[in-house]
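We treat protein structure as text, and this decision shapes the records that our systems exchange. Below, we set out a record of this kind in full and without editing:

***
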Amino acid sequence: MDAKKRFKIYNLKVLKTIGKGTYGDVYLCENVKDNNLTIVKDIELNFKIQNHNKDIANEVKILSSIKHPNIINFYNYYYTDKHVMISMEYATCGNLAEFMYQKCPNLIKQKEILFYFCQVLLGVNYIHKLNIIHRDLKAENILLTGKYGVLVKIGDFGISKMLASVKKTSTVIGTPYYLAPELCEGKSYDTKSDIWALGCLLYEMCTHKRAFESESLVGLVKAITSGNVHPIDLTTYDRGMQDLIDSMLSVLPDKRPSTKELMGRYILLPIIYNLFLDAGDDELLYLKAQEFLK
């Protein structure tokens, strides 16, 4: 049975293919009952792959447990014809990578960067309190939505890890450019690997360049494990921005701040406080954005 026929069973009309994932395709769909749009991950269950079903069940478990203004909403899931379809919120305004490289070809103002970054930080803080590591934080997985496109939501929890009572894990997975040194070296890791990814993200927002790049995987690993990055432009950004990046890109995980410690930083605290009060309200957030996007 093809995707359109399977989706029709659950009143979902396929509008277009958004992308292809590791185990299946991603579609933009319309719920024919209420005309609402949804993103549906259509995953083919492969019983030849060890623990594949457990991985899918893990994603569903994580998605269904998360309720936060800065996390993409989980709607439902359906098992049919050796497939599982996961229905999630549709982010109407693209992702942060598109925003940076297509809508803002020049460097972004510091206040604007912090306005978006702090929303990401609030979302990461929430999942870390649930003992969840995202493991693939990157600009493409930071989604923009809402009436005005200023509401930031973290998406793609397909490779997240529920830590439960196990505080560290060792599976090497994630986007190579954002991998923390401990992952490159095959060591165990925890939530501090997400902090490293946040450092890479903030650096990219300030420079429109990746913190660590190389033409080969070996070269990339060497660059990451060295921890050396070119400084950001301090004529455009405050020294506090560089200090923030440096703290998150510490080669030693224990030296990296937690999300709670980051939120208490002088440069972030006022914005975090204001965003927390708005709690994802699109109208209030838009009014707040005017202060930062001038």
